[in-house]
Amino acid sequence: MRKVLFYIPLLAFLGLSLFLLSGLFSDPRERDSAIIGKPLPQFALPDLMSPEQIWTPENLKGEAYLLNVWGIWCPTCNAELGYMSQLRNEQGVRIIGLYYVLPEDPMFGEVFDLAKLQADVQSRLQAFGDPYQFNILDRQRRLSLDLGVSGAPEHFIVDADGIVRAHHIGDINPQVWRSKLAPIYQQWAAKP
Amino acid sequence: MIRLVMVLCLLAAAQLHASTSQELLQFESEQQRRLYAQLTAELRCPQCQNQNIADSNAVVAVDMREKTHELVIQGYSRQQVLDFMIDRYGNFVHYQPPVNSITIWLWLLPVLVLVSLLLFQLRRRALQRNMQGAEQPSEEAAPASQQQAALDQQLDQIIERYRSTKP
């Protein structure tokens, strides 16, 4: 009995050390997503390039896809365009863009100009690669708020029935795709 | 005179500028204003993670403030607004997470440590008292008195010898 008691401080110390050590390798910015397993929230938003086309959760159904929240103002989003284009061309991944518009500041005379935005997006996609089937324009960022988006880039994997299956905060690179997203995407893309 | 008018004009313009640049929100009642202030202080910005949404100017915090304002105007209660945000951003977004199977340890662990330390200390006290109670009469007190008696005897002998050698 006394021997066991004698080792308790040592064991407590080792346990605490292991706990703190694991903290060194964890990502403090990682947080649980609240939307996984739920259907896409309701929305009716225009296409970025042809605004008369309205997208809703219903007309996106039918095939699993990767929903990418992005904007040309975001350098990381631009950097991943090349690799995502590769995913589209080589693996046939269906990628849909959710264009995240930054709020305009009227104090600086900023106004929303759709024609200019379309031209800017087009030239950016020509320069870096175009992974998107199409882009949904989320001007008020209402859908982004409902999805729990905290910034760009963020990615969701949505299955053929419109249920969100994965939520990835940050960019997609070969390592992230292979280890984290590809298994989930392939699992849901394979389903008829 | 013209200078004075110009200065006044400038001051008026600055005043106007200051008042328009502030975020002036309309509420229907003082109660709603207070609820909004309370909510923006206890909701946490998911982007700049150690600020509340009242403090942060990240796009998502601005959007969440707007949404909070909208919901408060619509007559949502504090809990309803919190549920709305937690539904989207998880428990992370509230500065007071709920007690569940993981967070319960934050409350239990300090109490457990305190109780075990108290028990340990009480046990030690009891052990020490037992030892003192056992030792004093048997081992220390008795030899001390015996030694004292022996020394007294020796002293008496020395005094006696000294006396006897005196003329």
TrEMBL record, chain A:
<feature type="domain" description="Thioredoxin">
    <location>
        <begin position="34"/>
        <end position="186"/>
    </location>
</feature>
<dbReference type="GO" id="GO:0015036">
    <property type="term" value="F:disulfide oxidoreductase activity"/>
</dbReference>
<keyword id="KW-1015">Disulfide bond</keyword>
<dbReference type="InterPro" id="IPR017937">
    <property type="entry name" value="Thioredoxin_CS"/>
</dbReference>
<dbReference type="InterPro" id="IPR036249">
    <property type="entry name" value="Thioredoxin-like_sf"/>
</dbReference>
<dbReference type="Pfam" id="PF08534">
    <property type="entry name" value="Redoxin"/>
</dbReference>
<keyword id="KW-0676">Redox-active center</keyword>
<dbReference type="InterPro" id="IPR050553">
    <property type="entry name" value="Thioredoxin_ResA/DsbE_sf"/>
</dbReference>
<dbReference type="InterPro" id="IPR013766">
    <property type="entry name" value="Thioredoxin_domain"/>
</dbReference>
<keyword id="KW-0201">Cytochrome c-type biogenesis</keyword>
<protein>
    <submittedName>
        <fullName>Thiol:disulfide interchange protein dsbE</fullName>
    </submittedName>
</protein>
<dbReference type="GO" id="GO:0017004">
    <property type="term" value="P:cytochrome complex assembly"/>
</dbReference>
<dbReference type="GO" id="GO:0030313">
    <property type="term" value="C:cell envelope"/>
</dbReference>
<dbReference type="InterPro" id="IPR013740">
    <property type="entry name" value="Redoxin"/>
</dbReference>
